[in-house]
Amino acid sequence: MAPLIIDAHTHLFPDRLGAAIRAFFVEFISPDAFHYPHNWREGRALLQAAGISRCWNLPYVKRPHAAQALNRWMAETFADDPFVEPGATLHPGDDVQNVVHEALDVLGLRLFKLHCSVGDFRLSDERLEPLWRRLSDGGVPVVVHLGHSVTGGTEPSELADLEAVAQRWPAARVILAHCGAPSVDGALALLRRFPNLHADLTPVVFHLAPVEAEGLRGLTDRILFGSDVPNVVVKLQETLAAIKALGLAPEEEARVVGGNAARLLPSRTAKAPKSPATDSKGA
Asked: Where are the domains of the chain?
């Protein structure tokens, strides 16, 4: 039987949005470093070919009033897809309560993503309170990219926002993207203090998250594997190899590469959304 490998950090987006994001990376990061195609169909196929069992598809938006169109596209495009778990997103400038209601109660999405850098907001923004309340009440996981750097990194000072949220909303199931790299030590210290916090080992463009086995001791039930396909230079096989190289006990490694994600978000029964999605141009 093939091992359970759940990629908890991918970005399979509408064609126009995917092309725009790739253009940003090419302009600001590197013109020729990215080897994964940004087309979502090709991305989905390569994830399956790599032996991934399921993936979490994490959307994000740059501005207010863009999330609902993207959430609807996610729900419609992957409604009957047992491989892709479509997520939802929002911006603090949205009608947050309405966006959350539609995503969870109408579209049936089961996962959220917040990207503080792309949306230029803080995780502790008071306008996000309706989101944190619903996530806390329903046990819906949320992946958060905390850092504001254009290269994806998180500064040690930025961890204070995560601490404030974890303390204010102890029932919220929060997954810190990239394990807060390069501020990994501070991030793992927060995981030890707040049992509702998790982290993924997703690379940051060119670099693996700099974690060591000793730093993960006692935390392997809250660590997830992620690839960041397609806008990443590190190949997903390299990330999996780095996890194996940590020398974790077999049961710990199994939890990290798939078991923890499966517990946070069990496989779903395919279900069509209750309202029509917009064309991908609307995203």
From this structure: 6-266
Kindly report the pTM of this predicted structure.
0.93
Instruction: State whether CATH 3.20.20.140 applies to domain 6-266.
Output: yes
Write out pLDDT tens, residues 171-221.
Answer: 999 999 999 999 999 999 999 999 999 999 999 999 999 999 999 999 999
Report yes or no: 128 and 159 within 8 Å, Cβ to Cβ: no
Do 263 and 43 contact (CB within 8 A), yes or no?
A: no
Q: What is the mean pLDDT of the chain?
A: 93
Q: Which residue has the tokens 């020398």?
A: 247
Q: Tokens 């997830």 map to which residue?
A: 224
105: Cα within 13 Å, side-chain hemisphere: 10
Identify residue 245 by its one-letter amino acid code.
A
**If we measure between CA atoms, which residue out of 75, 123, 124 comes closest to residue 99?**
75
